[in-house]
Amino acid sequence: MPAEPGTSMSKVQRRTYVYKTLHSPGDEHIPVLLDIYLPPLVSDVATGDSLTLGALVYFHGGGLTVGNRMSWFPTWLQKRITDAGHIFISPDYRLIPSGSTTGHDILEDVEDVFKFVAKLSNDVTPEQSELNPRPVQFRVDPERIAVSGSSAGGLCAYLAAMHATPKPKAVLSMYGMGGNFLISNYYTLKHSVFFRGREILDPTLFSDFLYPACLSLSSQVITGSPNTYFPPDAPTDVIAKPGLETNSGPPGFPSNRRMFLARLYLQLGEFLDYYTGEFEPSVSASLRTKAEDMQSTSSLSDRGLEDNLAEVIPEKHRSLFPSLCSPHAYASWPPVYFFHGSLDSAVHIRESQRLHDLLTEAGVQSVLNIAQGMEHSFDYQPDADAIHGQEFNKIGRWLDEFLTDTKIDS
C-alpha cells in the first residue's frame, strides 16, 4: 500500500528514455523523451535480481500548448506511486501549434508511449546512462499500467483509455480537460475575465501563434516548452504585456509566451480549431452558429444542446472527443477516478461530471471526487498535501489496487 507522505525519496532513481523519434520537414531527427522514476525497492535488491513492476503514466498539463515532462510535476503523486513499489513515468508529447501538429498527433504520441512502456525493461538503453547507476533487472508488467494527467494531461489520459494498447488498467483525472468539449467555454468569444485571476489578452500581441500565421511554424516540431517565470529579483516596476517577447518582467510573471496560448484560444472561442486542425470551415464557428440557432428556437437542457452540437463534429475528428464515444466504447473503459475543484474556472467541473455520468451509465466504475471551493491546479499549491493529504492517500491506495500484482503462484 502507498506510504504516508514524508517517506525518503533518496533511493528513487530517475532515468530518461527516447520513446520515439520524429522527423522534421528538414529531415532533422527529433527525439521525444520520457522519464521513469524507479521505486526505492529497486535500490534495495541485490544486483542481478529481476523485478516485474506496475507503472503509472502521467501526462503533464499546459493546455496542449506548453509544458514538458518536468512541468507542473505532481510530486505528491509520484511519491505515493514509487513508495508503493511502482514506476512513475512522465512523457513529453507534441504541442500545438508546432509543425503541423494537431490533436491527432498528440493521440499518436499517447499511443506510442504505451507501446514503449509495455516493452520497457533493462534491455532498453536509457538516453542518460549516468541516471542508470545499478544493473538491477526490471521490466514493466503490460497488464499493470495505469494512466493519469492534470488538465490537458487529463485529456491525454482519456485518449489513452479510448485508444492505447495495452489499455490502461485505471485512469486518474486531475481536473481533466476534454470531458466535454461541447460546453460553451470552448467556442464562445469572451470579452471579460473568464479564468479567475487572469487578464484578458490582446490577440495582436500573439499574431504569430494565430491562424493562418501559425502555419509558418510548419518547420518546427515542439515536444516540450517549459513553464518559466521571471525570477524573484526581477524589477518590480516593469509593466508586463503578455505576448511580447521581452527580457524582463515582474517577479513570478510567465516568461514563456506559450504559457498564454491555451487561454488565448479559449478567449477567442477557437481552441477546438487548433486542437483538430480544422480551420476552414472552422469547427468552433460551426458550433457557435448551431448553438445560437438552437437556443433561439428551443428550450433544450444543457445535455440536449450538447447532444445536438455533436452533429457538427466531423467524423474524422470524433476520435479526439472523449464525450463522443458510443455506449459500447464506454463499456470498454477502465475504472476512472475524477478529482476536480468545484470552482475551477479554467476547466469547468461540468466536464468531469459529464464524462462521469456517461461512464456510469455504461456500467464503468467511476468515482467523482469534488474538491469544494478549489480552483484549477489546487494540488500544486504549497500547502496542498496538508489540505488534501487524506484524499491524496485515498487516490494512492485506489491506484495501488490496479498496479499491484495479485496473481498467486501455483
TrEMBL record:
One Pfam family named in its UniProt record: Abhydrolase_3
Native organism: Lentinula guzmanii
SUPFAM superfamilies, alphabetized: alpha/beta-Hydrolases
MF annotations from Gene Ontology: hydrolase activity
Boundaries of every Alpha/beta hydrolase fold-3 domain copy: 56-176
Protein name stated in the entry: Alpha/beta-hydrolase
Keywords: Hydrolase
